[in-house]
Amino acid sequence: MRLVASRRADAFEELYRRHSVAVAAIASRTVADRGCADEATQSAFLSLWRRAAQLELRSSSLRPWLIIVARNAAIDAARRMHAVERLDAPRSAAGETRLPEDIVMQREAERDVHAALATLDDAQREALQLAFFGGLSQSEIAQVTGAPLGTVKGRIRLAMRHLRAILAPQTGDAT
Prior knowledge:
Elements: H1 2-5, H2 9-30, H3 34-51, H4 59-81, H5 100-118, H6 122-133, H7 138-145, H8 149-171
């Protein structure tokens, strides 16, 4: 990373060689359009090149960072491509019109979840993000992070227990 930050193309090429296949695989799982997936992968590596001097990534956290950036870029590209239906009233997945109070409650719940995620330690949050937002299996997370599979499973279990404890009083769920 230090060499990439100093604009060494050979170092960047080596990072690309090491991580591009995994990053492209996640982008392809996120969006069906191959062009969008390729664009998202390029966007992640371009972001790495541009921001290398500001990033303080360990070698073990570089691939998860690239995957998250690529996944977000793929989602954004898919939204731009498929933003053809603009209706006045928001609709649910089933197609019925949603009430404004339902929308507000959903946004509050999302805010609560993001706040709860922020309370996790970095390793637990990274494992959850890769599992739930990145769509990776626990085995894939172990490969990406370099952590043993048992450690990944433990991190996810502990993180979920922690999130349940924080969010249960807000949802009225006793479990």
